[in-house]
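If I may wish for something, please walk me through the protein I am sending here so I can picture the backbone:
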Amino acid sequence: MTSPSYRSPAQGLTVTVSTPDGAFTVIVGHQGASTLSPAVLAAGWVDTPEPLLPLIHPDLRPTSLQRGVEDPVLRDAADAVRAYYGGDLLAPASIPVTQRSGGFRERAWRVLRDVPPGEPVTYAGFARMLGSSRAVRAAAGACASNAAALFVPCHRVLRSDGTVGGFRYGTPVKQSLLDREAGAR
């Protein structure tokens, strides 16, 4: 790995980790042009970063990606994914994440990070957590637009009947994550 030569929001770093649910790719970038604090911009069960790029807000989206760069946040993010699959279900919560959208979605993503493993909530319950019991569709929309899977655990939100519902990376992955976390209760 080379030393970090990026200091522009236009360049991102990426790593892919092997997991029991398949390849998991992380993209790390800067929180914005005014700061050099790197954070996870996108992550998910894909084997290349390209499918993740459109999920990143245009103001944060890197115009180029580098693999194999030594970076503390990238290393910590990869280690957190490995730790999660090794049984430390809280490891991803310690990694900085930056996503940009409207105020409701940004708040929803922050609140999602506080939903504990093994304690999934329904979309209606999630809307109540956000202080808007009528905003069930908006809460579901926040989950659907989440770019940083696992680090922002949208998989912990279920349909009102308790079924898994949809998931960008497939319901088998979502069910696997929920099964893994069920022992945390």
Summary: The chain is about 30% helix and 20% strand. The two ends are 39 Å apart (CA to CA). Residues 11-94 form one domain.
